[in-house]
Design brief:
The chain is elongated, with a radius of gyration of 28 Å. Helices cover about 40% and strands about 15% of the residues. The chain is built from 3 helices and 3 strands. A 3-stranded antiparallel beta sheet has the order 2-1-3. It is of the alpha+beta class and about 110 residues long. The structure holds L-tyrosinamide. The site of L-tyrosinamide (TYC) has 13 residues, from strand 1, helix 1 and helix 2.
């Protein structure tokens, strides 16, 4: 068997041979920033309306929506979901528009996580 010294598998320079350098740059994949959507308490918006908003725009069950509504009522604020910026912004706009059209002062905002 004839061995070509350039092809030898235990050649520390590897199969590329003399003078060839292979570099690999590792780039960390950035995860997109996420945004919390917050619902704020007020003295005037009916509880049933808030429950309806949570069911309609955040896909919550009636029980979950009622629970979160009570948390906002008692504590003043609660996170109702965490989304990408575009989705969070859309949810806030939908809630604010729906509340305004029904003449309720319900407030919804977003906050970077
Ligand atoms: N505090 C309101 C009431 O007593 C109910 C309410 C709950 C309003 C949650 C806003 O985000 C809210 N009718």
């Amino acid at each position: 068997m004839i061995l070509d010294p350039k092809m030898s598998s235990d050649d520390p320079k590897g199969p590329e041979g003399d003078g060839v350098v292979v570099t690999k740059t590792r780039t960390r994949t950035q995860r997109p920033p996420m945004y919390k959507v917050l619902l704020l308490n007020d003295d005037y918006t009916p509880m049933e309306f808030v429950v309806h908003v949570l069911e309609r725009f955040f896909g919550m069950s009636h029980a979950m929506a009622f629970d979160i509504m009570l948390t906002v009522h008692k504590k003043g604020v609660a996170v109702v979901g965490v989304f990408s910026y575009e989705v969070a912004e859309t949810k806030v706009a939908q809630v604010m528009d729906f509340s305004r059209r029904h003449q309720h002062p319900l407030q919804c905002t977003l906050e970077k996580e």
